[in-house]
From TrEMBL:
PANTHER family: FAD-BINDING DOMAIN-CONTAINING PROTEIN, MONOOXYGENASE. It comes from the Eukaryota. SUPFAM superfamilies: FAD-linked reductases, C-terminal domain, FAD/NAD(P)-binding domain. Belongs to the paxM FAD-dependent monooxygenase family. Keywords: FAD, Flavoprotein, Monooxygenase, Oxidoreductase. Residues 33-359 form the FAD-binding domain. This is FAD-binding domain-containing protein. Gene3D superfamilies: FAD/NAD(P)-binding domain. GO terms for molecular function: FAD binding; monooxygenase activity. Pfam families: FAD_binding_3.
Amino acid sequence: MLDPEYADCRYSNHNQHTMVNTSEFVNGDKRKLRVVIVGAGICGLACGASLREYADVTILESAAALAEIGAAVHLAPNAHRIIKAFGGELIQTGAMPCKSFQEWSAKDNKLVINSSFDPLVDAGCEWALCHRVDLQKELMRVATTPDGPGSPCTVLLNSWVVSCDPDNASVTTKGGQTYHGDVLIGADGLKSVVRGQVVGDSFRSRPSGHSAYRALVPAEKIDNHPDLASLGLLDNRITMVNGAERRIICYPTRNRQLLNFVCALPDSELNEISEEKWSAKGDPQALVKSYASFDPIWQELLRQTGECGLWQLRDQDPLDKWIKGRTIIIGDAAHSMLPHQGQGASQAIEDAEAVGACLRGVAVSNVPTALKRVFDLRYKRATYIQQISRSSGLGSMRKEYLAKLGQAVNEDAPLNPIQYRDFTWNYYGALEWEKSHPEWIV
Ligand SMILES: Cc1cc2nc3c(=O)[nH]c(=O)nc-3n(C[C@H](O)[C@H](O)[C@H](O)COP(=O)(O)OP(=O)(O)OC[C@H]3O[C@@H](n4cnc5c(N)ncnc54)[C@H](O)[C@@H]3O)c2cc1C
């Protein structure tokens, strides 16, 4: 554990993986960069993994334990290949490779899309259907294992940051402890404390008018059901049942032990009140009632839900800055997005990689320039995907945002899926993006 005051630089001899020439003696700064990250979520841990080779990293997390609520997250090749490059092994730790997509129309219960693919062949990396707990554990392992490059990150739980000084890269916790770094990274999610100090009060988020139920159902309940077993829901597949104003999306995870659901619908169709809290519980009976217009087979599927969460989906306009002094916000703190494209965590992971790439070998005096580079490389892409996530929303939300993007409203094809897939999946890190997509750099 680090001394909380963390004011003195540490000259410790790191293990044999430390790459002395990239970081320890840079431009006369005879020490590694000291980085303080607020938040040990997906973004904060990935950022620690990205930096550990050449920086001393301390991650402060408000929670007493890293116990993500039960739910799954899918990582497309753009994010999964970054985790692999960090040494993470998601498939070996239970994530399932997605190899097909089915879309059913709720109106007439017809299969409208049934496509098969292999991203490992097409994009060189699997599309990983992960349990969030497994993903977070694996990121924690990669960030803190003594066997990794450089020095393990120090993760301090029960460390709730209440204020920060962006120009001096320092934070203070509720317990009154202050941590100083050369760089401060706000990876503290939607309700970021760091963001307030970086952008002032310009951040606004508002209810999008939609909410999402989330649930995990044990595989036996599907396998042993006379009608549900034959649907193939536990195959390596994402299944969507689309009812224009509401949707069911489900896929298997944790070595096919669980089926994950996300059911998004307008608040006006809820039979209960949603809250802006990931841990808020929903009522499984109210969930089924909200899907009464769907074919009985899908209602029967929802009836398998034992316990579910109900989450109010919030909408955020893009921020125009992520940086102040020696501080940058990344992940949901900078660009939280609606979940309709499943790219929130992936964009957070891309940010984390960009921070690592831009701070490599940088002297303390050049930190603000390096952070500006992160912003320049990441801003247009993350903002575009944030906007696309809005425009692939439901019902009138989709129309409103497509209109803002100047795109035609076409109920059947709001986006060209192939172009969008290529845009998101064909990402090979921030520096390669800078070379191959100069028009996407600020
Ligand atoms: C229904 C739903 C489905 C989704 N599905 C997908 C999907 O399939 N694919 C995908 O890519 N994304 C998905 N997302 C989005 C994704 O979950 C988020 O974008 C992602 O979790 C953001 O990661 P983060 O680390 O930036 O923020 P968070 O996950 O919110 O982590 C922030 C961390 O900071 C800590 N923290 C907060 N404040 C403080 C403080 N003051 N001091 C110290 N610590 C603090 C928190 O405890 C937390 O650990 C989904 C989201 C929802 C709601």
